[in-house]
Amino acid sequence: MAKVLEVNNLTVKIGEKSVIDNASFALFSGEVLALVGESGSGKTLTALSVLNLLPEVAVVEKGSILFEGENIFDLDKNQLRNLRGNRIGMVFQEPFTALNPVLNIGVQISETIAAHLKMSAGEINKRVRELLDMVKLSPEVLSKYPHELSGGMRQRVILAMALSCDPDVLILDEPTTALDVSIQKEVLDLIKQIKSDINFAILFITHDLSIVNLMADNVCVMKRGVIVETGSVENVLHAPRHEYTQHLIGCIPRLGDERKRLPA
Amino acid sequence: MNKRIIFGTSIIILMAVVAIFAPKIATYDPLEMDLSPEARLQGPSVEHFFGTDNLGRDVFSRMVYGTRISLSVGFIAVFISLVIGILLGGLSGYYGGWVDNTIMRLVEVMYCFPTFFLIMMVITFLGPSIINVMVVIGLTSWAGLCRLVRAEFLSLRERDFVYSAKVQGVPDRRLIFRHILPNAMAPVYVSATLSVGGAILVESALSFLGLGVQIPTASWGNILTAGKIYIDYAWWLTLFPGLAILFTVLSFNLIGEGLREKLDPKLRERK
Question: Fewer Cβ in 10 A, N or C end of chain B?
Fold first, then answer.
């Protein structure tokens, strides 16, 4: 299997504080890699640095991120724009704020396609309908506005946008955290099914170990910007070596179990 | 519906109809003079609704044509300032950094000038004409709008949906004009409506001082000027154009206030 994404010794600082400290991991084509950790552990910042979209206060101190062999920190503005949405798709945590309230769904899905692929209006329209079919939404939503859709529907729209140009890597930043449990399952099943139809690699950011168990092949555990443990889901979840991972797993409430506290 | 908006819009629509159909509504030729002593300075009557002026011209017809001038100056001047204000404010708020610094220093310079005297000076150099008045008012009134748009952009560019569009690789131009700008328009509408009233006032003042619309073309401002010498015994020459200016500007302000109330959730009454 080929490496599509490789993060090497990445260190990102906000002021004096390292928010990502010497992180290294690799994503292979077709793999689902989960990035797990508590809030503020640097998961989302890692994802944003993959797209070179870190907020201005965060400075990349050292390290590189190679996408198909090319360091994304060396790309110019146009190359970056072509990378985002086209080669790497991303789904955000909060479906309620990730869509523009004043544009209808059709416009928002087709603009990603129009930004990257040279297609006529008719071809774009056809592609949009294909995508809706893929995320199991009816074409009626095209003329609707975000406030008319439920959270699950919006997340599917965002998923359709992220998949619109057949990306090699899909970054899912806690895609189901804002949804309730039954909708979570629906969206996760949908992602799994689409993944089995089209092959792409997923960087799955979450703090929910049951989702990791359900979705991922491999796991990186992050704590305060440091990757403390990496390995396959079986190894990490069933035989965790690092104390922090053990604590994380110990935090999962079980019936008849007395709860342990995670020393933060 | 808001009462202020209804009242304001009705007056403006009435004014717009008068302006568009001026030749049909005017009862006399606005430029036709009648210098016979009995025709000059007649008070309001059935033949001359608003009386006649010192040259025997029908004031009502002159005012009907003046409506065209006032409304077009108001709208075109504000349109020019909208284009400049939105463009510069958008660039400033979206890009930040040195772009923002340069534009904001320029805005501060604009704020430092006493605008009305600047306009008077420029008109003195360029020569008074309706086009010059529109352009100069437009070019000097964009600073406030620019700040307003910049402030909206500053807060909107950090919103998730803008990030999300950026992540999809949407180009900057589209981000600015399709994603951020429509979300920033609410306060712009309010401010633009209020500025239309302001621009009409400035035009009237310039015409009153003889720097705006030139005689014999009629504008509310220069009818007022012509009337000021006769104010002791021909009150209709100053009263009617004054009322027209008052009501038009008042209507625009009422619409602006009404819109502000509608669009600003903080001011909206609880239902």
Answer: C
Q: What is the pTM of this model?
A: 0.79
Q: How many CB atoms lie within 10 A of CB B211?
A: 22
Cβ–Cβ contact A113 with B under 8 A:
no
Closest listed residue to residue B176, CA positions, set B144, B154, B148, B147? B154
Residue B134, amino acid: M
CA distance B113 to B7: 35
- How many domains in chain B? 1
Distances (CA, A) of A14 to A35, A53, A57: 21, 14, 6
If one compares A83 and B51, the residue with the highest pLDDT of the two is A83
Distance CA A106, CA A81 (A): 21
**What confidence tier does B108 reach under pLDDT thresholds 50, 70, 90?**
very high
Rounded to whole angstroms, the Cα distance separating A33 from A171 reads: 10
**φ, ψ at A7 (rounded to 5°):** -105, 120
> Which residues constitute the domain of residue B142?
3-270
CATH code, domain with B182: 1.10.3720.10
